[in-house]
Amino acid sequence: MLHGRVVAFVDLNIEDFWKWTDFFSYIQFMSLFTLLASVVTVVFIRSPYFVELLGLFALMIEAMLGVPQFYQNYRNQSTEGMR
Question: Between residues 66 and 82, which one has the greater pLDDT?
Fold first, then answer.
């Protein structure tokens, strides 16, 4: 029980995916994602294609970190208040 209610471990509503209702939901998702990614990595670690794709995805994610700021600047048609 959490806050007087029973919490299902998986109550995923895809429409509200990034709108975490509480910190516990975020921890659940991160735990499951980490477990799944770890298992997949252990299984395919000897495959050079997997290792290359893993590196490519990591690089793509890092390269995309500035996109939300660029999008906000585009919507505002200004760089005022740029973080």
Answer: 66
